[in-house]
Amino acid sequence: MDFEYFFELLLGGLTRGSIYALIALGYTMVYGIIELINFAHGEIYMIGAFTALIIANVLTMMGLNHVAVLLLATVIAVIYSAAYGFTIEKIAYKPLRHAPRLSPLISAIGMSIFLQNYVLLAQTSDFLPFPSLIPEFDFMEPISHIISSAEMVILVTTAVTMVLLTVLIKFTKIGKAMRATAQDRSMAMLVGINVNRVISITFVIGSSLAALGGVLIASHIGMINFYIGFIAGIKAFTAAVLGGIGSIPGAVIGSLVLGCTESFATGYVSSDYEDVFAFALLVLILIFRPSGILGRSTTQKV
Amino acid sequence: MMKRFGKLLLATAISAAMVFTASGNVFAEDTIRFGVAGAHSGDLASYGLPTVKAAEMVIEAANAKGGVLGKKVELLVEDDVCKPEVATNTATKLTSQGVHVVLGHICSGATKSALGIYKDKKIITMSPSATNPALTQSGDYPNFYRTIAPDDAQAHLEVDFAINTLGLKKLAVLHDKGDYGKGLAEFAKQFIKDGGKAEVVLYEGVTPGAVDYSAVVQKIKRAKADGVIFGGYHPEASKIVMQMRKKKIKIPFISDDGVKDDTFIKVAGKYAEGVYATGPRDTTGNPLAQAAIEGHKTKYGKEPGAFFLNAYSAALALLNAIEKAGSTNYDAISKALRTEFVETPLGKIRFDDRGDAIGIGFSMYQVKDGQYAELK
């Protein structure tokens, strides 16, 4: 019984951590490339969820089957949010590329507030029901009440995404260009890498992942509103710092550690202290490993 | 030394006053004196004046029928501006005029400061609007009654429903850490403990806006709770209910009027089915309420204001109790208030041992076929 409880908490923590990871990767990649903390990133997650909601409702009305709705809604939400990420970079950060470091940071906060209010006005401030796009089915008896199909889908999707991202960065041309840009932007430019394009692609990839996270969690939780990006964004940012901002495996590990910490704190102590434990962990890590769990010297990023 | 002197003085004053009222009662049997106290001027007058109007209407109607116990009812109105320090003067003035019962005061603070004076003189006091739970629950004021549900009434109803109607034994009490939700959850926890029939197996606050609540939901399961009482608003409630139902936890979910909201049903969808929530009782269909409001419109030419129906009901309950008691004797009226039901615009009511109206305030609702239905 106690082992079962432990596993339930662990899986809950990993599920939550997976969502954080999908968002945290965007923070960490953008930071790795241009040393900017993109505070509007949480809003991309929220916009991804809203887009999927609208698309899913339209598709369901058109009478498409469940799996088609899930796939189409996810793909469209991801593309649409990627476009948002691309545009945000062009509007809010590119003009400030050579400005003092504080300026793009303030621009990012402004963007975050703008997007929240834009969705608030364009949609509603109420919570909206989100259809459970992930089909619900039961596993065999001992497993079925430890993990649900939605949690399984979230875990698997995140794992697959991580592998794909690693492959992309390690073995493709654009991945090489990204790593080069992260190491030294002016040097990369000198050897003929289109740095602006690399930055745009980084934003597109980060936004796509955040949107994917948004769709998955909204489908799991069943409700969204314009404010969900804020808290999720803060938590994912915390996870990125925990793992070592700028490091991709660090963001994943940081997210899973954070998710599990919250889950165990709730399960074994009290949910009153969920955030207390999460941020106490952050403080401890930063005291003993100022660059985060996997953070290394600042020259090796992405 | 000063303290003892003060006590001595107080005792003298009280005994002097008692002699006065006692003698007052002896030669004052020609009318029934009905005091009304509350804010009748100042910035809170809009809360107090409807009570005066309600008392006027009820007393006029009673006198038109030949009065109560064959005597005319006399209305004595005193202003307390909703200030505790003024309220003591108001109370002293009304008692010196020999009132038999008092309708008021309006604000909880003013009510509390005035109650001691009425208590010493054994005068029944009934407020249409003071919701502070301690006024009745502390047991300090056996002379106090009210026709409005106290702040903790919802928690009381939830616990009562969970234990006595649903027969639950192990309750998980959750809240959203906010003033409203946590306040209710604390009351619920206390009532469960005091009742002794069930136990609180889990008491926790969830973080509003957290990504998911699966750990809390697992905790509910692990605690082997057979019911959940949640204090807070609908976004958290729907998240918890949905995750519970998805984890196949089918135990009852009972919440408050922060959840008795159509958005809850819209968001939680099929998972909302069967959820219980307390909400203000719907009395707009009550013919007495309609008649009272119509009467106010014809007499004063406008809509009645705040707490009008509560005051109207209180006035009816007081006069009814005097009629049933057959005298203006304190003990007889107290007994009548607690035992005799009376038809009022708020429904059929009587008072419990603490002085809170039974049959007033909140009802339990349940989601059935995508709508909240009042449980009778």
What oligomeric state is this? Answer: heterodimer
Q: What can be said about the biggest beta sheet of chain B?
A: 7 strands, mixed
Over the alpha carbons, how many angstroms does the gyration radius of chain A reach?
19 Å
Q: How many E strands of chain A?
A: 2
Largest interface: A-B, 40 and 31 residues
**Distance between termini of chain B?**
59 Å
Strand content of the residues of chain B, in percent? 15-25%
Shape annotation of chain B: elongated
What structural class is derived from the secondary structure elements of chain A? mainly alpha
Considering DSSP H and I runs of 4 or more, what fraction of the residues of chain A is helical?
A: over 70%
Radius of gyration of chain B (CA) equals 23 Å
Membrane topology (chain A): Multi-pass membrane protein
Family (chain A): Belongs to the binding-protein-dependent transport system permease family. LivHM subfamily.
Main location (chain A): membrane
GO molecular function (chain A): L-isoleucine transmembrane transporter activity; L-leucine transmembrane transporter activity; L-phenylalanine transmembrane transporter activity; L-valine transmembrane transporter activity
